[in-house]
Design a protein that fits this description.
With about 800 residues, the protein is an alpha+beta fold. Helices cover about 20% and strands about 25% of the residues. Helix 8 packs antiparallel against helix 9.
Length: about 800
């Protein structure tokens, strides 16, 4: 706990007097909200503003529906950031009204007059004369002599503002999501015992579960203060500071500020530069985080009756922006794709416990390093080996996963809870899934039953009479003729994409979507990519790839890309939404990737975290393994490089640009083709005119992996030493001389994970062996990355060729 000897600032004492519910306003605001004034919830702006215009009080339409939130928000910035709401758990229909009645009551009614919410206060000898929204963001009801009878600052939702106080017994409740302001799963409580604590809630009830952060100020804490200098601290009853949460020396004169308990359970202090203030001209016009409490919530929540930061069978990890995000382990899908907090479900039928039909041969494991679902063990064994731990879980039909760490083996059963992935966790998690990783086999069984039923019914009908047989035959021919006509109409314009389930756009649609192809995202040899908007797409944003100067090669590229991507479905591949093949216009419409390319992310001045790079390596590896081994038609990408790896909103890796893809038939393992790809990432066999296999992608991945280890390009003319110019040669020399720390110079996070760095260097060098047969498959690369397969020391990449 902080020292108790700090003097209480005199200014703060005045501030406390000003905020007391029975105090008078220091300077009477303009009573611009008079008795009988009202607002109606409709499409047009409907609000009352503060004198400066910084804040607004009124109705905001919610994006997820047609209902309205009665709220206070920042009104001078582009994004209307909500700081308080009256009806967060009971939205108002269109046509609802908020009125300051002639009797001085502030009431929210629905269109037929039923009360939704009202500002309640103790009956006094005074009556409300007016309402006002102060420039502090505080909405008040006051008497004619400016005595405050009710104020929004006394009833916070998820946010506190400068000059606001959180008294004992008050709390903040996080919103459910970023856009759903209803009460969520976390709470910040200023407790009556003086302790300030963060709790998980037994959602959807209001009951609290376990605390995951506290100030340890029992008997000392009295009020949480957010002062005008931008500091947030806890004071004792004698006005001394007992704990400082945030102190950034950015005054409210130059910056808008707010502190919010967000939907992910983190209490964050934000600042936003005010326009026209010279002292902050270097600040971007956006909310910047001053402090986050706790710094890594994924590791803090680990108890109680809830699932953790994320849902059951899910796990939490920090993204590059240090924000937590939830994801499912391999073999699992989200219950609700639109809500990552609603847990994950197995995408396969669980292991049977019927001893007469043992299923051990049907199951295997996916390995995940530094991952755990603690506090849900039903078996703990030590000392044991990793292999023993896997086998023990495999033969136990109740075992959903096993965790192995330092000779300890923990068995877990469904549902898995409090999942987290972090370098400090250590060990390895084994997730049990069906070997084919298929969808629920019960669905397949049901389908088989339905098919059998159809066969039986058909047999009965066909055997009943020859007349019925003839009737059925004529009916079949008539239906078939109808379908053939419909299909012929569907494919008449573009027969080569028959069978591809994509939306066909007209040129005019895409011209309008891109605003006449004005905002360019990037360009290549055959195409330029433009940003566009489509109403039916999530987030409304798309990337439109316009093929230009279409010659025979460009035509082949277009057909290859449509054919290749349309038949894929994997979270680490960019999704193709549709295409345009109208006359000379050939375009591809992809999902929009908010965070650009891996090249932009990796080679910027400030290095991405080591942990975020690890996740990206895994993502690219899984995407390539899918293309090589899980598609009905094996696909060789032929141009893996940082520019063709795009990053989604959570900085997840997605492989893009299949323009050079080469498809292999089921019985085909290699192909002959002209040189493709990008210099520096092209495998040697291209230049020797040897048959091309999936190993060319493995080579490119190896170069990419080495780049990601040290955040440097495969060739740097301005390297400090001549020996360091060619990355692959330098990396091999560092491995041979056992000086791999040189590759991650000034990268503290990677330096603390040298064992993994060394392993990844070895994997990268195995991938770039000049002899293709020495390179591992992408499936084996994944096993190496996850620790399921030991990684031996590789030879010099060119040693095999030199020996020939």
């Amino acid at each position: 706990m902080a020292s108790l000897c700090f003097p209480f600032p005199p200014l703060l004492l005045l501030l406390l007097l000003f905020l007391s519910p029975t105090s008078t306003v220091a300077q009477k605001p303009n009573p611009n909200i008079t008795l009988d004034a009202s607002l109606i919830a409709h499409n047009r702006d409907s609000f009352w503003s503060s004198a400066s215009g910084d804040f607004a009080f009124g109705f905001l339409r919610q994006s997820e529906g047609e209902d309205y939130l009665l709220a206070i928000w920042f009104n001078k910035i582009a994004h209307k950031t909500v700081v308080w709401s009256a009806n967060r758990d009971k939205l108002a229909p269109e046509g609802s009204t908020v009125v300051l009645t002639t009797s001085g009551q502030l009431v929210l009614n629905d269109p037929v007059g039923n009360q939704i919410w009202a500002a309640t206060f103790s009956a006094t000898n005074h009556s409300v004369s007016y309402a006002a929204l102060l420039d502090t963001g505080n909405f008040i009801l006051a008497t004619n002599n400016s005595k405050i009878l009710w104020q929004s600052f006394d009833y916070p939702t998820d946010t506190i503002l400068p000059s606001q106080i959180l008294n004992k017994g008050n709390n903040l409740v996080a919103p459910y999501t970023e856009t759903n302001y209803s009460s969520g799963r976390f709470q910040l409580a200023m407790q009556t015992d003086g302790n300030l604590m963060l709790y998980t809630r037994n959602f959807p009830t209001d009951l609290l579960s376990n605390s995951y952060w506290e100030t340890n100020t029992v008997k000392f804490g009295f009020q949480l203060i957010f002062d005008l200098s931008g500091s947030i601290y806890l004071i004792a009853e004698n006005k001394t500071i007992v704990n400082t949460l945030s102190s950034n020396n950015l005054t409210t004169q130059n910056f808008y500020q707010r502190a919010i308990l967000e939907h992910d359970g983190v209490f964050r202090h934000y600042v936003y530069p005010k326009r026209g203030t010279g002292s902050n001209s270097s600040w971007a016009e956006a909310w910047s985080v001053s402090i986050s409490i706790p710094s890594n919530i994924c590791m803090e929540i680990g108890g109680g009756t809830v699932s953790g930061v994320c849902g059951f069978n899910s796990y939490c990890m920090l993204g590059n922006d240090q924000r937590p995000f939830c994801t499912c382990p391999p073999g699992f899908d989200l219950f609700d794709p639109n809500d990552v907090t609603k847990s994950c479900k197995p995408a396969f039928l669980s292991q049977s416990c019927d001893e007469s039909f043992p299923e051990t041969d049907n199951f295997g494991f996916v390995s995940m390093e530094n991952t755990d679902w603690p506090y849900g063990d039903y078996g703990h064994f030590r000392p044991v080996t990793q292999d023993w731990c896997r086998k023990e879980c495999l033969v136990d039909c109740y075992c959903a996963a096993a965790i192995f760490r330092d000779g300890n083996c923990w068995k877990k059963k469904f549902p898995l809870s409090f999942g987290r992935m972090n370098s400090s966790v250590g060990g390895i998690a084994f997730i049990k899934i069906r070997r084919d990783n298929s969808t629920l086999q019960s669905q397949n069984l049901d389908q088989n039953c339905r098919n059998k039923t159809k066969v039986v019914i058909g047999s009965v009908l066909l055997g009943s009479s020859s007349f019925l047989n003839i009737l059925l035959l004529l009916l079949t021919l008539w239906i078939g003729f109808g379908f053939s006509k419909r299909e012929s109409r569907a494919i008449r314009g573009d027969p080569f994409i028959f069978g591809v389930n994509l939306r066909a756009f007209s040129y005019e649609e895409l011209n309008k979507a891109t605003g006449g192809f004005t905002e360019r995202l990037g360009s290549g040899a055959f195409a330029t990519v433009y940003k566009g908007t489509l109403d039916f797409v999530e987030n409304n944003l798309v990337a439109v790839k316009k093929l230009e100067n279409i010659m025979s090669e460009g035509e082949r590229e277009f057909k290859a890309e449509v054919s290749a991507i349309a038949r894929t479905n994997h979270k680490n591949l960019v999704k193709l939404i549709g295409f345009c093949n109208e006359g000379e216009h050939r375009m591809l419409v992809y999902e929009f990737m908010e965070n650009g390319s891996l090249a932009d992310f990796l080679f910027r001045p400030s290095k991405p975290t080591w942990y975020s790079r690890i996740q990206l390596v895994w993502g690219v590896a899984r995407g390539l393994s899918y293309l090589h081994e899980e598609c009905s038609t094996q696909i060789i990408h032929c141009d893996i490089k940082p520019q063709n790896i795009l990053l989604d909103g959570c900085f997840g890796a997605k492989i893009a640009d299949f323009g050079l893809a080469k498809l292999l038939k089921k019985d085909q393992t290699q192909t002959m083709t002209a040189i493709r790809g990008t210099k520096g990432y092209v495998a040697p066999e291209w230049f020797r005119r040897l048959p091309i296999t999936v190993k060319v992608d493995v080579y490119s991945f190896g170069i990419l992996l080495l780049e990601m280890i040290g955040c440097r390009k495969n060739f740097e003319l301005e390297a400090e030493n001549e020996d360091e110019m060619i990355l692959s040669d330098w990396v091999y020399d560092c491995m041979k001389e056992r000086k791999m720390e040189k590759l991650i110079k000034n990268d503290e996070e990677a330096e603390n994970d040298m064992k993994r760095v060394e392993k990844y260097v070895k994997i990268g060098i195995w991938c770039i062996q000049e002899e293709p047969s020495l390179r591992p498959s992408m499936k084996k690369v994944i096993q190496m990355l996850e620790g399921a397969v030991e990684v031996s020391t590789p030879p010099d990449p060119s040693s095999f060729i030199s020996a020939i």
